[in-house]
Amino acid sequence: MPRRIEKIREAGVNELEAQQKELTEQIFRLRFQLTTGQAEALKRLREARKDLARVKTLLRANELQATAKSAAARPAPTKPAQAQVGRQAARKA
What we know:
Number of helices: 4
Largest sheet: none
Strand content: under 5%
Order of helices and strands: HHHH
Helix content: over 70%
CATH architecture: Orthogonal Bundle
Number of strands: 0
Distance between the termini: 67 Å
CATH topology: Helix Hairpins
Number of domains: 1
Radius of gyration: 24 Å
């Protein structure tokens, strides 16, 4: 299993998206096989679901990493001072 994870991590975004589509179709086919009573389909279905989860996790991590890099590249906007609200404003007045 560690080999499978490393292999998925080394893949690029385009490869991961293709793998996601392929696994989704495979899960669809395996669900049909399961309903027809083929026993080995259950094990393969579980593995395919886990692989799909791994691929989706890596795609999301790449997406978050890209947004973090773009946010770090932009300067933070300055906020104007906010007016005090509530009891603190009443005490100072």
